[in-house]
Amino acid sequence: MVRHVYDFTEGGRDMADLLGGKGANLAEMTGLGLPVPPGFVVTTEACRAFLATGAEPDGMSREISRHLSALEAATGRRLGQPDDPLLLSVRSGARFSMPGMMETVLDIGLTDASVQGLAKVSGSERFAWDSYRRLVQMFGSTVMGVDAGLFERAMSLLKEKRGAPDDLRLDAGDLAELVETYKHLIHVVTGDHFPQSPAEQLRRAVLAVFRSWNTERARLYRRRERIPDDLGTAVCVQRMVFGNLGPDSGSGVAFTRDPATGCGGPYGDYLADAQGEDVVADIRDTVPLAELERLDAASYQQLREHLRTLEHHYRDLCDIEFTIERGTLWMLQIRVGKRTAEAAFRIAAELVDEGLVTPAEALSRVGGDGLARLMFPRFDTSAAGDPLARGLPASPGAAVGAAVFDSAEAVRRAAAGEHVVLVRQETTPDDLPGMVAARAVLTGRGGRTSHAAVVARGMGKVCVCGAEELTVDAEARRFTTRAGTVVEEGTVVSVDGSTGAVYPGAVPLVDSAVMRYLETGERGERSAQVVDAVARALQQADGTRRLEVRANADTPQDAARARRFGAQGVGLCRTEHMFLGERRKLVEQMILAGGGAARERALAALLPLQRRDFAGILEAMDGLPVTIRLLDPPLHEFLPDRTELAVRIATAEAHGDLPDPHDTELLDAVNRMHEENPMLGLRGVRLGLVVPGLVAMQVRAVAEAVVERVRAGGSPKAEIMVPLVGAVEELRIEREEVERVLAEVSAESGVPVNCPVGTMIELPRAALTAGRIAEQAEFFSFGTNDLTQTTWGFSRDDVEAAFFSAYLDKGVFAASPFETIDREGVGRLVRIAVAEGRAARPDLTIGVCGEHGGDPESVRFFHAAGLDYVSCSPFRVPVARLEAGRAALAETEVSDSR
Fold this sequence. Notes:
By secondary structure, this protein is α/β, with parallel strands linked by helices. It is 46% helix and 16% strand. The protein has 36 helices and 31 strands. The protein has an eight-stranded mixed sheet with strand order 12-22-21-14-15-16-17-13. It has an eight-stranded parallel β-barrel with strand order 24-25-26-27-28-29-30-31, surrounded by six helices. Strands 1-2-5-3-4 form a five-stranded antiparallel sheet, with helices on both faces. The longest helix has 25 residues, at 596-620. The protein is elongated, with a radius of gyration of 32 Å.
């Protein structure tokens, strides 16, 4: 029989798939002997069964009843007991952390009868009614579907009526009145009554948490974090402990290290006389965790000991929620903490130095996306002027955008291509769509453990919290600084998540410390620790990885920069990029020449220009392979726009003038070469087969550049790549032409020119016939952009704007197949081509030169598929180096802080 419920004493963190991250870690802390309120977990399997059928799985209610009876026996109290009630919290807990995205209900078991007993046993009538108020509010919104804003407005009206600045100033009578108001609201909105049966409260709360797995904000968060939709959530049912019993009680969030910078801890926020949800909801201002030592030295020292125990046990940054109930410390949650990229690299390096993890484990705990963020530019503060305000630097980085004051406006403007900064007094889980759309998040209230800070850090989003100098007026859509400056919606501001400063206008950017290190090798002083951590991670990755990392580079400057970034060659040099600008006229002349001597003269004019380009790139990559792709795009792309030409000619005729003969000639050529679907038309190898002299000119330019570099004492390693091959016969014919020209240049110069000849695999037919094609190819390079287009039947330029967002929303894609390799479709073609190509030619070199070559998840796939190298833009080379090293780690315990 399938079990649906486990006691905390029966589990451990290795059961996270079944018990969820929260439940598994509560069980782990229980096993360590830490002070954890007792409880039990309803499994993710039960959730999945409920979501699939809409009904409770068989036996679940009976199991919950048995575990509840055991909990009642252990505590000596019954759920909802009138004179001394056992009260429960019901919390979500998925396999991967999803902070604030699902539901929680506290104080289950309070009723009109038991609230009196709680008041008596606690000695505080106000506390009892405050707890009951919280239950009715949470249950009404979470379980019964009442708009949470209705409860908030009722609270605000009562505080206004009583002249109370916050909820602490409301007395027991006020809170009792509020409970009745809340219950009346529930009845008016739903036609139902707040349940007075504790058992019904528990059952409905568990099912509501199950349902919250599929809320829109939870789905959006999972898409953003690439968490599978089919995991479901567990539900943790736990004896309540109370931080709102007076000044000797309170709740807090603690980290073993600073999750924003990686500095040693402890670090966090504390709020006296408050429950845990008050800490993250920014209802009142928290104090730094260190202040707890003054308020309650014994609890503070005990907490520090528990933090040390947990960090050594988990060997990672830990994020803990705790409550102090009348001087007694309780641990309510432990998870591997979300962190910024800067903190991730620094913490990984320091844990190695402390002997807690190996260098390989440290490498598994940093990622390419984080490294890319550290390479992004920073603000040039010397040119910034005075800030509008300062807050807490909750998530580092530099972001510029128009200030907007609600989530919907952020989404609307971002969809139109505008960069925005979401400004809120404080954020709630409902703000998630706007946080995803915005470049930065700015809040007037809240600490570095607030909802805004935690979620922004997890997404790598710039965030400044607690900018108390700002008065945020969401209804008027503006904020006002302490100096009286008014910033209206749409005004551009700059948010510095590294310093907490907010500036007017767009502040200029400069290279980050990590980028300066990669460019020059300089480590600097201010950011020496994070730069050193990045350097160590890259060194470990380079010593671990099997994949080579090359760069896509079309100019000597790009090639030189890529080499500084650690590239081991050029995996793609796109020769068509050398025909742009002033050289476009020469291509026009070649096209218009038609044939014969005129075409030869046009090609002869292009030859020295191509040779000079190739020589520069070969010099920059001396001793390393440079893969040069022959001309790929259709020739008409080098001609003026068809409509523009037609308009010019028609305008001249309308004025009674003769059109420019050159325009007429160009229009004739454009019409002659027009294709309905150029992506599948006359391009790639097809050009070389039907346009005489084109391949010969390009190959001669390569060969003569090789000769030039050899005579200069260099060691050029040029490779010639034929694009868009679909049949081995195409490659055989073109290869014969290439080898003929190479032999000619060798004979003319007396310098042997040996350039390997290979092809791009960018058509499904090429992948499926890779064994035949390998007979004529010395290397393969997957062009995954075109391979994705032709496998899916997509025209990227059309579909991304037309329906990709809908596909992502509906779950057709977890990520765009143009950003992350489609393993099931395109990936399968890659695996087929690798297997069949190597079977025909065991020494076949295989790489990838599409954009996927710099995508972290795709790099891991290419490693597993057996490729020899990935090639990406120069900027992504360090990212690919890091991910190639991570992919090569055979066995390691990966720290997954999703």
